[in-house]
UniProtKB/TrEMBL annotation:
Ranges for domain 2-oxoacid dehydrogenase acyltransferase catalytic: 180-261
Name of the protein this chain belongs to: Catalytic domain of components of various dehydrogenase complexes
One GO MF term attached to the UniProt entry: lipoic acid binding
Upper lineage: Bacteria, Bacillati, Chloroflexota, Ardenticatenia, Candidatus Promineifilales
A Gene Ontology term for the protein's cellular component: cytoplasm
Keywords: Acyltransferase, Transferase
SUPFAM superfamilies for the chain: CoA-dependent acyltransferases (SSF52777)
Cofactor(s) this protein cannot do without: (R)-lipoate
Organism for this UniProt entry: Candidatus Promineifilum breve
Length: 275
């Protein structure tokens, strides 16, 4: 029996893959973020999802629905996902590329995979759903061998070089967009049930953190009814986005989600179901 076992604990190596998380957290801690904790009524959207599943037998992606709404909301004010370049200028992207977490099966375990969904502001819910399902079914091919090789090489670098990469990459917004997208959407609610907010340490100008869904009393046409409320944390880089534009974005996103944008009859991207 070794010394650690005699003392009641076990020492294991720190996974190299966690260096990706550590570096992201260090970079995020340098940003000047403002956060808003809000709730969106997703009762209508969930009703449409259930109806679609009953009609077709297929559960479509709730994440795809949210990405569609985020893209539509950012499309109306592209400053919300702008970046500064090395000369201090603001770069406003035409496409909303969302870095999100997709839960996959890997070696008989469920694993959160970071994946960039491109041009969500130009695509239907159905198109986004199909891509998400493709990634879940083919996780080994979602990033490409070149990207995976780069990640394996990156985590072997000394800490000061990895930190330098995180300082240089944001200075070229085109590179940043290509590697990590322009907006971050994280669904912490996929790992538990009930309401509640997540407080991120964000890297992007706009970060959307989806919490849980809770059933609470709501007022509809003067009547109290049970409603489903999604907890959402909206985080903005205050160096670029002020409070008033942030509040207007939150109102736009609320209207799109509560109005079940892209779902129902006549919607090309109709339906999206639980992830």
């Amino acid at each position: 029996m070794n010394d650690e076992q005699q003392q009641g604990f076990t020492v294991v190596p720190f996974p190299r893959s966690r260096r990706l998380v550590l570096d992201a957290m260090h970079a995020g801690s340098r940003k000047h973020m403002i956060h808003g904790l809000v709730e969106f009524d997703v009762t209508e959207a969930r009703r449409l999802l259930r109806e679609e599943k009953e009609r077709t037998g297929e559960s479509l992606s709730f994440t795809a629905f949210i990405l569609h709404c985020v893209g539509a909301a950012v499309e109306q004010d592209k400053m919300i996902h702008a970046c500064r370049d090395w000369r201090g200028r603001l770069v406003l992207f035409d496409d909303v590329d969302v870095n999100t977490i997709i839960e996959i099966e890997l070696e008989e375990r469920r694993f959160p995979l970071a994946y960039v969904v491109r041009a969500v502001n130009r695509r239907s819910v159905r198109e986004l759903h199909d891509e998400i399902r493709h990634v879940q079914q083919n996780p080994d091919r979602s990033h490409g061998e070149q990207t995976m090789s780069l990640m394996r090489w990156y985590v072997r670098l000394p800490g000061f070089l990895r930190g330098l990469a995180y300082r240089i990459l944001p200075l070229n917004p085109a590179w940043l967009k290509r590697v990590g997208g322009t907006v971050n959407v994280t669904a912490v609610g996929m790992f538990g049930e009930g309401g509640g907010w997540g407080i991120p340490l964000p890297l992007y100008t706009l970060n959307v953190t989806l919490g849980g869904i809770a059933t609470k009393p709501g007022i509809v046409d003067g009547r109290i009814e049970p409603r489903d409320y999604l907890s959402v944390t909206l985080s903005f880089d205050h160096d670029i986005v002020d409070g008033a534009p942030a509040a207007r974005f939150a109102e736009r996103l609320k209207g799109l989600i509560e109005g079940a944008e892209g779902l129902g009859e006549g919607g090309e991207g109709q339906v999206a179901g639980g992830e």
